[in-house]
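Morning!

This is the sequence you dropped in the shared folder:
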Amino acid sequence: DGEHCAFPLNDDIKKDTLFEYKLVFKKHYHKVIAKLRKYIKSNNVDVLINIESMLALYSVPACLGINIRNICWEHFNFDVDLGLKLRKISRQVAAFCCDDVITLTETDKNIWLKNARCRANITAISNPASFELSQPRQSVNSKIAISAGRLTYQKGFDFLLDAWALVIKQRQDWKLRIVGSGEDEAALKAQAEKLGLTNHIEWISHVSDMKEQYQLADLYVMSSRFEGLPMVLLEAISSGLPLVSFDCKTGPKEIIDSTCGWLAKDGDISSLAEKILTAFTVFDNDEEYAKYSQAAINKCRSEFAIEPIINLWMKLLNNEK
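The structure's back. Tokens below.
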């Protein structure tokens, strides 16, 4: 609700909620629009930012006839609808009716421009890394590869388990640590057991300090089927971790280059295993590992630091070119 937040906010930020009780928006469509419109008018709102394109279905009619700037901030990518046909419709509505659409990557921006009738300005602004930069590592510490996220279809942990089964045929000195919980947890653990990975994987369901988990690891591996801009990769490079990831849509190739990690063919389990093994071989040399860790820190500092990203948002909000 509007009174509670999972993270600290500046005292100048006012928190409100349209309804004091839980409401299924699609079942009360007109009610939500009316309430949002009333809020906009009574608070003299200048800019409305929709977090996720589905909300354009509510904000566009709510803003009709009102002098307000309506911005859609996409947090997936254009091709992902998560099984909701309305999400595809909402993106077309946002592209045609909103003033601006913000994507997380240049790749997704180009997909919007190609596949939607865009009257809105389409701008790519990435999310910043959420952790402070760590010091680069000088050598491999514990030979732990980490992967974190919801244990769901999107995150592709089933692919990762299959890849790890190939990895351990050549390197059993490294261990995989999976951090997260979700609807596929039981199925994934059964898969790991069937693949003979019980002694090669650590499962951690809940952690209070994710940054500590990155600090304890030596490599980050991501096997997602799709993303927007994966925060786990940003968190990992801010912690000085080299990366291996599928080249899925969208985000990994915007974060990973040859200096700080490896991209595997999208959805190709053998390619993922090959890149992980390549990383292990490179990291056998401490000097090489230190170069990759430093490059990860440099990448985060140069492209995903919060200050330049704030500046991009301010330019957008102030209509500066």
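Headline: Strands lie at 47-51, 69-73, 100-103, 121-124, 144-148, 175-179, 201-204, 219-222, 243-246, 261-264.

More detail when I'm at my desk.
O.
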